[in-house]
Each structure stands twice: as structure tokens, then as C-alpha cells.
Amino acid sequence: MLKVMHSAADPATPNSQWEDLIKLPNPNTVQWDNIKTQLDLVLLALETLTGIGSEAMLSAAVNLNLESRVPDRVALWRLRQSNPLRKGQGGRKKLDVEEARSLVLIICYLAKQHQELIRRAVGLLEQMAENNREPHQAALLGDYIDAFCNTYQERMEEDDQISTELLTHLALKLLVDLLFYSAPAGHRRLWLALIDSAKY
Questions:
Q1: Which single residue of 49, 68, 98, 181 could bond 186 by disulfide (Cβ 3.0 to 4.6 Å)?
Q2: pLDDT tier for residue 1 given thresholds of 50, 70 and 90
Q3: Cβ neighbours for 99, distance < 8 A, ≥ 6 positions apart
Q4: Count of CB atoms within 10 A of residue 53's CB?
Q5: Are 164 and 149 in contact (CB under 8 A)?
Q6: For 95, which DSSP code?
Q7: φ, ψ for residue 89 (rounded to 5)?
Q8: Which helix (H) or strand (E) holds 88?
């Protein structure tokens, strides 16, 4: 009985997750810019919270059998440069649906790996809200917010038009989202959230 329960609890294989995403609706052409932006921002939140870099993302691609779609740093950089908000992103080919699915699986794989840290950060956020304290007064959240805001301003074109308050709000929203994406069906949640957010 325990063996059966254990095998049922095993994480889905990369292939079955890919099949899951294929069954979900595909975005239409109008939605793509928003989706490219969202994927890059979720990765930005993940890397500024956990300190991971492109090596961890490429390692995840290998573990998920996605190295043909994300083979090296240059390919990964190009995928992320497809975000229309990024500085100097002209000339980048459009992100295709398979590349978007690959990034979704990589994000959820890494979020799962760092689930404990994400949970701790979200728990702290809830505590601070209950005590009517500013999130940045907690060291973990303060470091994350600073890193997110600084990296966003370094990489994105609209850094002059966006306030620190708005960036902080975005960083914290993405942090809570990461908790959902670290769950077993996180890849489905993220894909559906991308399509949903792109409707507006």
C-alpha cells in the first residue's frame, strides 16, 4: 500500500507535463507580447529570490529533456530577450509555442526545487501584512524586493516610467504566483495564467 502511495506521489515526468501543456489552449497571435513579458518577469522573480542564474536554468532544461529547445546560454538569452520591455531586444525572432512551453516547464521545475524558500518568503509576507508592517522590514523580503527592482531597472526599457512602489507590488505578486507554480500542477497553472493575463 505504501509503495502504491509513494509512486502515486512521484512527480509527473517531463514528457507527461509536456503532453499536459499540448492539451491546453494555445495563445493567439495578439497575446504573444504579453506572454513573452510575463515569462521573463516570472524568471526574473525566481532568479532574484533564489540567486540562481542561467546555469541552473540550462541544467533544468537538460533534466527536463528540453536541451534541443534551450541548448545553451545564447539560446536562453535570446528567449528572454523576446520580452518587448527588454532593452536592446530588436531583431529577436518571435518566441514560438514550443519555446514558451519549455520556459514554463523550466520555471516550474526550478520553483519546485526552491519551494521551501518560496514558502518561507510568502509566509513572511503574510506575517508582515497581519502585523501592519512593510514587507521590506523582513530581511529576506527586503533583499528580494531590492534585487528585483534593481535588476528590472537594469534590464527593462521603461525604468523611468515605473515607480518603486509599482515594482515592489509586481515583485510581491510574482512571489505569491511562484508558490502556486511550485505545486505539482504548477505548469498547468502557469500556462493558463499566461493565456488569461494576455486577454486584457
A1: 181
A2: very low
A3: 69, 70, 79
A4: 10
A5: yes
A6: P
A7: -95, 10
A8: none
pLDDT for res 174: 98
Backbone angles phi, psi at 156, to 5 degrees: -100, 150
H or E stretch at 122 = helix 115-130
- Cell output for 200: 486584457
Task: Name the grid cell of 184.
Answer: 505539482
- How far is it, in rounded angstroms, from Cα 97 to Cα 120? 33
Tell me the C-alpha distance between 124 and 197, whole Å: 26
* Residue 66 near residue 79, CB atoms below 8 Å: no
Tell whether the model's pLDDT for residue 39 goes beyond 50: yes
Which pTM value belongs to this model? 0.89
3-17 pLDDT tens trace: 333 333 344 566 789
